[in-house]
Give the backbone structure.
Amino acid sequence: MTDIKVELSHIKGFISENQLDTYKKKVADTFKTIYSRTGAGNDFLGWVNLPSSITADFIKDVKAKAEELRKKSEVFVVVGIGGSYLGARAVIEALSNHFAQMVETGSPKIIYAGHNMSEDYMNDLIKLLDKKDYSMTVISKSGTTTEPAVAFRILKNHIEKKYGKEEARTRIVAITDKAKGALKVLSDSEGYKTYVVPDDVGGRYSVLTPVGLLPIAVAGVDIEKLVKGAQLMEKYCLDNQNENNEAAKYAVARQALYHAGKTNEILVNYEPRLCYFSEWWKQLYGESEGKDGKGIFPASVTFTTDLHSMGQYIQEGLRNLMETVISVENPANEVRIPTDDANLDQMNYIAGRRLNEVNQTAEKATILAHVDGGVPNIRIAVPRIDANVLGQLIYFFEIGCALSGYMLEVNPFNQPGVEAYKKNMFALLGKPGFEELRSKLEKR
Ligand code: PA5
């Protein structure tokens, strides 16, 4: 059985059983479309049985490379953008000490590059790397994405100057397509250790390939446990291709709510370590569903923090919102609120209680307030955050996204809209082949 439970009691006042039934009826056929790989974008369904296809030898190889890099690195730089870094960052931040960058954890500090074009960011990074022993991975499935290509060009130059070409070679791992793209050509000519992103796995579904697994292993996370969690969820989904499947319940609820006018979904967490998990989720759902003039707009908040910034809008703003809460039942540690004799802050009424009790009470109070304010709530309960549960959550959200996307009648595995800005940027930067577009854009 899975550790993930979807609770839908707080969507009831917003949609009828009939509205839910419309989508429940589609579940079995949609599962069939996914697992038989007969739907739109089916050449990108490699992630569906990715967990069960990961071999012990592959894990051993990734762990060995990660160990080698860990030994010689105070800092490990992950160069990539979108699906080529968000999955790794989601898992690493969810499983790391909140202050990992400031305390000794026994693992290299993981930092990121190639996910923005900021000159100041790069300048600060270079200054930092001047003083640290480091290694890096450059991740790009297409091997042609501008942001990581530019960042890698700069960092390659830096690492070669710092260590010399030979040593630099041992500190760089490339993760890219098996045959095509500039990064593949470069890696072959430089002789970097290279891992392959499978052809049939798109960027946002690639966290369980080397794209995610190598950086996650360098961060000191047990990737075997992560993969086991995903395998468990894969098997659960294969065995339960029906409307009672937890991922199907999630997909059905969000599609029914969307068609009832709840066009924006806010993913809520009460654990700041899940912030980047929300970033990963936003890409997964936004890029998969937002097309053909349709799709739920994915947003995220961390509570209780954002109750003091976004809370007002959620409670009383435009009523096109639904919330999905990832509710973590047990934190890994215990902190109790002390008694204070003076009680000037008037907090003695909760003295002796665990912070988690207050956090969970805030969650319950907020769900009820938001439901009363017109925001339906989907609650996804997990017992704890660890590598196994995260592995389950990854596959849960991936399959939920595929089900939901197919129910919406879009291709959840392409992203044609991402190209528009790229073409404009190439044209405006003067890339050969874009002259006509450039002259059109310059007139605007
Ligand atoms: O999900 C996707 O396909 C995208 O977000 C890509 O991951 C992102 O654009 C980076 O692409 P690439 O890995 O080809 O550099």
